[in-house]
Write a structure and sequence with these properties.
The complex is a heterodimer of chains A (256) and B (104).
Chain A: H1 5-34, H2 39-49, H3 52-65, H4 70-95, H5 100-108, H6 112-120, H7 124-156, H8 164-176, H9 183-199, H10 207-222
Helix pairs in contact in A: 1-3, 1-6, 1-7, 1-8, 2-7, 3-4, 4-6, 4-10, 6-7, 9-10
Chain B: H1 3-23, H2 32-55, E1 56-57, E2 60-61, H3 66-78, H4 83-99
Antiparallel strand pairs in B: 1-2
Classes of the chains: A mainly alpha (256), B mainly alpha (104).
């Protein structure tokens, strides 16, 4: 297959994003075993769930509530993963064709970074190359790193001595920051954070995070504090993916 | 509920969400309420997770080295410092403050 210059650029971007994200998978692996999951459960999350934010949500809630916090862990993970469904709709015209099995693989690889790299490319073939390279590079790197991190976490025991608890919190900040450009989003973030904090002592672990979904529903359904008129999605405009309505991935290199 | 059940259900649901996006019509993207609620859900969950991961210790609130680490991270992210660098710095801030004995 001959690659154009644009294809090669997409390829290079995909691989570099993949390596950056993979490096960070080590902390997921280590934190996951510290949260009480075993190595296989940890690897299963990276292999099958494969969405960084949701994976950190699951282990964060399990860390505070144990196996009893299963339901809020599942619900929080899924609410957080809903954005991947939007990404799927965005990239379906690019990579949704072909045999059914290829669509299943594409679906599994549909995350913040693969979508961001894909729609940042101008040409259709480069979009395809960008999606697949980024998705595959992250999938392989993230899973290897998870496994290494889980082994490492088992060895060192108390990962908080290495500041990994702060790493987890900072990672969520990194995923959140690029999404706060609009007043409405910033207001939702503030209210959700305050509500969650207030609920920590009064509710079972996991519930404070889950309760934040109510804030999103109230603001989203009433469209409270929204400044612009309802925006239209323009699937052909990939020049500024981060500002496209209906699409707010983390910046390139963020965790999936 | 065992940990395995949690891990498997959360993982399967994640795939179902991703795959569903390939099946439903593109016109859904033009429904502002649909995309808005989804985007705000992401924001709300992430913000709550920042709060709980920074301040929570089981069912108690603990003020420790995570707070300065997260503040430093927020500042660095504002200046568009790469993700991997920021999370590493956040970890280092926490470690240094703990080793100096200034914070738990």
């Amino acid at each position: 297959m001959a690659l154009s210059a644009a294809d090669k650029r997409a390829l290079r971007t995909g691989i570099s994003v993949g390596i950056a994200v993979a490096a960070y998978g080590v902390s997921f692996g280590a934190l996951s075993v510290a949260a009480g999951l075993d190595i296989w459960q940890t690897c299963f999350l990276s292999l099958v769930l494969f969405s960084g934010g949701s994976q950190f949500a699951v282990i964060g809630i399990i860390a505070s509530g144990g196996a009893a916090a299963g339901i809020p862990a599942i619900a929080s993970s899924t609410f957080l993963a809903l954005r991947n469904g939007i990404y799927s709709m965005r990239v379906a015209p690019i990579v949704g064709g072909g045999p059914w099995w290829r669509r299943i693989v594409a679906a599994q690889l549909t995350i913040d970074e693969s979508t961001a790299v894909a729609i940042a490319q101008d040409e259709k073939s480069a979009q395809k190359v960008g999606f697949w390279t980024t998705g595959i590079a992250i999938y392989i790197g993230w899973n290897l790193a998870t496994f290494a991190g889980a082994l490492l976490g088992n060895l060192v025991g108390d990962v908080n001595k290495f500041g990994l608890d702060a790493v987890a919190a900072a990672a969520f900040v990194g995923l959140l920051w690029p999404r706060l450009k609009q007043l409405q989003a910033a207001a939702v973030a503030m209210v959700a954070a305050v509500l969650a904090t207030i609920l920590i002592p009064f509710t079972p672990p996991g519930v404070p995070v889950l309760a934040a979904a109510v804030v999103a529903l109230v603001f989203g359904l009433t469209n409270w504090l929204h400044r612009e008129p309802a925006a239209q999605v323009q699937p052909d405009d990939a020049s500024e993916p981060l500002d496209t309505p209906g699409f707010h991935p983390g910046h390139e290199g963020a965790a999936s | 509920m065992t940990l395995w059940i949690t891990v498997i259900i959360a993982s399967v649901l994640s795939f179902v969400v991703k795959y569903t996006g390939y099946l439903i019509p593109q016109s859904m993207l033009e429904k502002p309420k649909f995309t808005r609620v989804t985007n705000l859900l992401t924001v709300a969950m992430l913000a709550a997770l920042v709060a709980v991961q920074t301040l929570g210790a089981g069912q108690a609130i603990a003020l420790d080295a995570r707070i300065p680490a997260v503040i430093v991270a927020a500042i660095l992210f504002t200046f568009r410092v790469p993700f991997i660098v920021v999370v590493a710095v956040a970890g280092i801030v926490a470690v240094v403050l703990r080793n100096l004995g200034w914070m738990a």
